[in-house]
Design goal:
The complex is a heterodimer of chains A (112) and B (111). Chain A has 112 residues and is an all-beta fold. Chain A is 0% helix and 50% strand. Chain A is built from no helices and eleven strands. In chain A, strands 2, 4, 5, 6, 9, 10 and 11 form a seven-stranded mixed sheet that branches. Chain A has a four-stranded antiparallel sheet with strand order 1-3-8-7, with no helix packed on it. The N and C termini of chain A lie far apart (36 Å). In chain B, 0% of the residues lie in helices and 56% in strands. Chain B has 111 residues and is mainly β. Chain B is globular and about 40 Å long. The termini of chain B are far apart. In chain B, strand 9 and strand 10 form a beta hairpin. In chain B, the strands form two sheets. In chain B, strands 2, 4, 5, 9, 10 and 11 form a six-stranded mixed sheet that branches. The chains are: A mainly beta (112), B mainly beta (111). The interface between A and B is medium-sized, with 24 and 23 residues.
Chain lengths: 112, 111
């Protein structure tokens, strides 16, 4: 079945450490997105990519980095510059306006 | 800057009752989406509204879009406990597929 796979489901980061969240899709979608959700809050856009080898900053890109080397993959790195990374991270992709986003199952990141 | 506001933020209702959740947005858009999120889970697509006057229904939920008023509603009919979740609306900004999400409405249906 087609879908989006995020891994790991839970991730713990030590202070000063970079961590990478994986997002893989087999839907043949061109556009992919990373959102952050804080407890009791809505979703905020971190980065997005509409085509391979190209990506743009969203509203809260500071302290994050991405790459889009393959159509299927859009990993997110949370760098040590992100001072408050504890949150639920959601990856999404879209193949057109008709169906809207398809979301992955999310990664819950906690700083220890 | 596009802003998306939902109200109420919290809603506690008895089973069998009807209620409406409102989603207001601040700039022109004719693409609006509703999602459901269960605690600790990802978002599940409920409705896709792509034109003024669009109305979609699934079970006890019905969504509508008024682009002139910049307003979407999610109406709940005869609520049941299984509808307890957080509901988000999202607006597509200028057709770029960059969604701006509302703050969410946390619904609790009491038996």
């Amino acid at each position: 079945d087609g879908g989006i796979t995020q891994s790991p489901k839970y991730l713990f980061r030590k202070e000063g450490q970079n961590v990478t969240l994986s997002c893989e899709q087999n839907l043949n979608h061109d556009a992919m997105y990373w959102y952050r959700q804080d407890p009791g809050q809505g979703l905020r856009l971190i980065y997005y990519s509409q085509i391979v080898n190209d990506f743009q900053k969203g509203d809260i890109a500071e302290g994050y980095s991405v790459s889009r080397e393959k159509k299927e993959s859009f990993p997110l790195t949370v760098t040590s510059a992100q001072k408050n990374p504890t949150a639920f991270y959601l990856c999404a992709s879209i193949g057109g306006q008709t169906y809207g986003y398809t979301f992955g199952s999310g990664t819950r990141l906690t700083v220890v | 800057e596009l802003k998306v506001e939902q109200n109420p933020l919290f809603l506690s209702m008895q089973e069998g009752k009807n209620y409406t959740i409102y989603c207001n947005y601040s700039t022109t858009s004719d693409r609006l989406y509703w999602y459901r999120q269960d605690p600790g889970k990802s978002l599940e697509s409920l409705f896709v509204l792509l034109s003024n006057g669009a109305v979609k229904q699934e079970g006890r939920l019905m969504a509508s879009l008024d682009t002139k008023a910049r307003l979407s509603t999610l109406h709940i009919t005869a609520a049941v406990h299984d509808l307890s979740a957080t509901y988000f609306c999202a607006v597509d900004t200028s057709g770029t597929y960059k969604y701006i999400f509302g703050t969410g409405t946390r619904l609790k249906v009491l038996a």
